[in-house]
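ugh ok fine here u go
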Amino acid sequence: MHILYFHQHFSTPSGATGTRSYEMAKRLLARGHSVTMVCGSAQMGKTGLTGEVRRGLRRGLVDGIDVIEIVLPYSNHDGLFKRALIFLRFAFRSVRIAFFEKYDLLFATSTPLTASIPGIAMRLLKPWKPFVFEVRDLWPELPKEMGVITNPVILWAMGVLEWLSYRTARGCIGLSPGIRKGILRRSQKGKRVALIPNGCDLARFQPGERGDSRRTCLRAVFTGAHGMANGLDAVLDAALELKARDRMDIEFHFIGDGKLKPGLVQRAQSQGLSQCQFHDAIPKTQLQARLGEYDLGLMILANIPAFYYGTSPNKFFDYISAGMPVLNNYPGWLAEMVEENECGYAVPPDDPAAFADAMERLADDPEGRVQMGNRSRILAEEKFDRTALADQFVDFLEAFGE
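structure:
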């Protein structure tokens, strides 16, 4: 089959963001299929293309993937209106590409939800061609609960787009249990909906010695976006609590970028939180070496109920691949997994004292941390091997090409 694959935020491992679409495309190639990837120009992503831009596009082969980049620079630092406009421009340019490109199956993955628009359009214009939609976040539930979008007309329009996305797709993929349930709730009976979460790059992220044995402090790390959804003030709240307890031997490191990063840096400085240190985003290819400098991975999100079962964050799977204990600060399927597999601690949201208590326990029990890290790696190998999950992904798509 030839798969026409739409992902606005596609990136190769040379970018500082998730690489799920790259890994899935590579597995499709390994299984004998061909892939044309249509993407945008994300701030943290790297498409692998450096050629000349013609009519707002550039095209070329990247590791065997035929990549079409719609040159629409995007950044989380942009305002809501500007980002929405970029989403819509990408979607409608994608419709044109989908109409003229030859393909056997059209596959689109969110976010944003507007990624489904070329699939919806082609179900009308080329109804014999299958469309499969992958959902990474539930919209409009998530922005509504976060208070990012409050206009009832916009929320209604997003609800309609969500309904059309699920109804016109012949099959859907959800990245978490809650996402899969959300798709089934809004879809027609009999819809094929697979649960294929983000996975672990077991070869790239190898367990190793955690940190420097000469150090006497605990170093925790958060990797990823510094935005509203991430709720990183919770970490600073815990750092302030630990400072009051005179536990300055516990450090928090933040690797990444985002709209709220300047404010977080300013708050840490104004409150004398010298144990909170901020670092630039780094490519995925360099992340393994950096993770070896830390003792613990932080899985932090804002206290939004839609997050509890409706997210599948890359950072969690990177942490457990690297054999790191995990501290999770919100309820849901990941918190349950951490507790059931004894590979870290899950603490209640918005509770700096409980967060600080868990950090003290981890700091005071280095042998226990090693055992937790070992169990993290076992969990990664047994349940989230990216190769096995990618084969499930290819199997699911192949079922629509028969």
